[in-house]
Amino acid sequence: MAVETVPIMPTTDSSVQKKNRIQVSNTKKPLFFYVNLAKRYIQQHNEVELSALGMAITTVVTIAEILKNNGIATEKKVLTSSVGMKDENRGKMIQKAKIEIVLGKSEEFDTPTASPTAPQAADEAASKDKK
């Protein structure tokens, strides 16, 4: 189903693409691509804004939780809204859920004892069990 964005309000400075915004898709890239990209953005800009529409919202929440649980980021702001979009196939307006999560650099970000990401922790635990 092809969907195009139809602006409802005039564009403002806040709707212009920000340098620290990541627009997440749950079909284009793997989860940890976004986790690592968010880490890099936090390192460069001290915060990152994760944004998603519709079915990708769960992916954004998962990314934010991984970053928070590993001591990399702290939650600054969560915004939810709905966005009007035009369905190209049917030609009618539909509403899509939207989420924006702003994460800031945590105090533990620069310490070398930050916990590893979930897959690394699982691998380390599995290798300890084998010994």
UniProtKB/TrEMBL annotation:
Stretches with biased composition (Low complexity): 111-122
Family annotation (SUPFAM superfamilies): AlbA-like (SSF82704)
Domain DNA/RNA-binding protein Alba-like, residue spans: 20-82
GO CC annotation: nucleus
Molecular function in Gene Ontology: RNA binding
Superkingdom to which the source organism belongs: Eukaryota
Xref: InterPro entries: Alba-like_dom_sf, DNA/RNA-bd_Alba-like, UCP030333_Alba
Region (Disordered): 108-131
Protein name as catalogued: DNA/RNA-binding protein Alba-like domain-containing protein
